[in-house]
Design a protein that fits this description.
Layout lengths: L1 H9 L6 H5 L2 H14 L1 H13 L6 H12 L6 H12 L7 E4 L5 E2 L3 E8 L4 E7 L3 H19 L9 H14 L2 H14 L6 E2 L12 E5 L4 E2 L8 H22 L1 E3 L7 E3 L6 E3 L5 E3 L2 H15 L3 H11 L4 H6 L1 H15 L5 E2 L4 H14 L10 H19 L3 E2 L1 H5 L19
Parallel strand pairs: 5-10
Antiparallel strand pairs: 1-3, 2-3, 3-4, 4-6, 7-9, 8-11, 9-10, 12-13
C-alpha cells in the first residue's frame, strides 16, 4: 500500500487511502495470503462472501469470493506430523490404507479417506496446525481490513459480532465437540430417512482429528441437471430440516455452505456433513420467526412490521427513517409468501424489488442495525438454503411445509420436545 501511495504521489496524484489499499495487485496478494493462512481468516471470508457480497466494495467481494473455492492442503510431512502428535508415532498400524492426498480441503481442516484394520471405511478430518491459536488475531485482522476499506462506517460497532464470531470459530475448531453434535443430529434425524448423517468413530477422534464413517455422494450442486422432481424433493427435504431445527430440535447446524451437503443418486438421500457450526436456538428466536411467519401468511403488514421490530430483525430508528421502503419490501414478501401453489425458487423476479429499497436503506449508515447474534446465525442458514433452492430452480409448496409449525406450542402433533446442547 505504501509503495502504491509513493508511486501515485510521484505522479502528482493525491490518492485516497482506500484506493491505495485495494489495488488489483493488492487484492490478489490479500486473497493469496488469506487462502494460505487458512483458519479463521478464510472462514470469515467465506461467510462474508456468501452473506454480504452484494453490499461490499467490488474489490473486497473479489477477495472474499476467491476464498470460497481456494484452500491449500498440508504437505504430506506436515500431515504426518499432526497425526503422529494426535495418534502416536505408530498411527499407521491402525489402518490398512490411508490416502495422504485429501479428498476435500476447507478453511480449518482437510479430509482423508481411510480403511481401518478392522474394516471400517472412514472419512478423517484433520485440522490445520495453529488454527485454534490464530482465531482471535485472524478475526481482528479481517475486521481491520473491512474498516480500512471503508465498507464499515466509523459509527458502526461490530464488536459484539466479532466476539460471537470468535466463540463460534473456537467451537468449530473443537472436533470432539463437533463429534458430539454429529451424534446428536444422527439421533434427532433417525426418523427422517431422506437424510443420512455420518457415525462418529470415537476411538480415533481428538480435539484436532474427527473420524467418521465415509458416506459416498455427489456434490449437491450437480443436482441442477437432475429431473425437476428430484430437485424439488431435495429442497423440500432441506426446508423441512430447517423448520425442524428451528421449531422442534432447538439446535441448528448454521453453516449452509453447499459443500456440507452431498446427494446419493442410488438412494436419493442427502448426506449431511460438518456439524462444527451447530448451536442452540433460543426459544425467543424461534418464537420471533413464528410470529413473523404467522403475520406474513395472514397478509398482515402491520403485524409483520411489529414482529420484525420485536424480534430485533430491524431497529426502531430504521423503521422510522425508512417506513415506506420497509412497507414496500414487506408487501413484496407477503405477495410471494401467499402466492397459491408451488413457490418457484428459480423465478428471481422479486429479488430486484427487494434489493433496490434494501440498498437504499443500507446506504443510510446512521440507521444501520445489528440483529441479535442468534438471529444472524439462524438467518444465515435460512438464506443459504434459499440460495441453494434457487441454484437448483426447485418448486416447493413452502406454505404447506410452514403451516404446521405455526401453532403457539411450536410442535407438530406426536413430535418431540425441543432439545438443547
Amino acid at each position: 500500500m505504501l509503495a502504491e501511495g509513493a508511486r501515485r504521489l510521484a505522479t502528482g496524484e493525491r490518492p485516497q487511502f482506500r484506493d491505495m489499499l485495494l489495488t488489483p495487485a493488492n487484492v490478489g496478494r490479500v486473497a493469496d495470503r488469506l487462502s494460505h493462512l487458512r483458519g479463521a481468516a478464510m472462514k470469515l471470508g467465506q461467510m462474508i462472501s456468501m452473506d454480504a457480497g452484494d453490499l461490499l466494495p467490488a474489490e473486497l467481494t473479489e477477495i472474499m469470493g476467491r476464498l470460497r473455492d481456494s484452500a491449500h492442503h498440508m504437505p504430506p510431512a506436515q500431515l504426518q506430523g499432526v497425526l503422529a502428535r494426535e495418534w502416536g508415532s505408530d498411527w499407521r498400524a491402525r489402518f490398512s490404507s490411508f490416502e495422504l492426498r485429501p479428498i476435500a480441503a476447507a478453511s480449518i481442516g482437510q479430509v482423508h479417506r481411510a480403511i481401518t484394520r478392522d474394516g471400517r471405511e472412514l472419512a478423517i478430518k484433520v485440522q490445520y496446525p495453529g488454527v485454534r491459536e490464530s482465531i482471535d488475531a485472524d478475526v481482528d485482522n479481517v475486521a481491520a481490513l473491512l474498516r480500512m476499506s471503508g465498507a464499515l462506517p466509523r459509527s458502526f460497532d461490530v464488536t459484539p459480532l466479532l466476539a460471537e464470531a470468535k466463540i463460534q470459530l473456537a467451537e468449530e475448531a473443537d472436533y470432539e465437540r463437533e463429534g458430539r453434535q454429529m451424534t446428536l443430529f444422527g439421533r434427532l434425524l433417525a426418523d427422517m430417512p431422506e437424510v443420512v448423517v455420518p457415525t462418529l468413530a470415537p476411538d480415533l477422534t481428538t480435539p484436532s482429528v474427527l473420524a467418521m464413517t465415509f458416506l459416498d455422494g455427489r456434490a449437491v450442486e450437480t443436482l441442477d441437471l437432475a429431473p425437476q422432481a428430484t430437485r424439488d424433493a431435495a429442497v423440500r427435504t432441506l426446508i423441512s430440516l430447517v423448520l425442524r431445527e428451528l421449531f422442534e430440535f432447538g439446535v441448528m447446524q448454521t453453516d449452509p455452505n453447499f459443500a456440507n451437503y452431498r446427494f446419493q443418486p442410488g438412494s436419493g438421500r442427502l448426506v449431511l456433513l460438518d456439524f462444527g457450526a451447530a448451536r442452540p436456538v433460543q426459544a425467543g428466536t424461534a418464537n420471533g420467526y413464528r410470529r413473523l411467519l404467522q403475520a406474513g401468511m395472514a397478509g398482515d403488514r402491520p403485524a409483520v412490521r411489529e414482529a420484525a421490530l420485536a424480534a430485533g430483525f430491524m431497529g426502531s430508528r430504521t423503521m422510522v427513517r425508512h417506513s415506506s421502503r420497509i412497507d414496500q419490501m414487506i408487501d413484496v414478501i407477503i405477495g410471494e409468501l401467499n402466492r397459491p401453489g408451488l413457490f418457484d425458487f428459480g423465478d428471481r423476479g422479486f429479488v430486484a424489488a427487494l434489493r433496490d429499497p434494501g440498498l437504499e436503506i443500507a446506504a443510510d449508515s446512521s440507521a444501520w442495525h445489528v440483529p441479535p447474534a442468534d438471529i444472524l446465525f439462524v438467518q444465515r442458514k435460512i438464506s443459504g438454503t434459499a440460495l441453494l433452492a434457487a441454484r437448483l430452480k426447485a418448486r416447493v409448496d413452502v406454505r404447506a411445509l410452514v403451516a404446521p409449525w405455526l401453532h403457539e406450542d411450536g410442535a407438530q402433533p406426536g413430535q418431540s420436545e425441543p432439545v438443547s446442547t
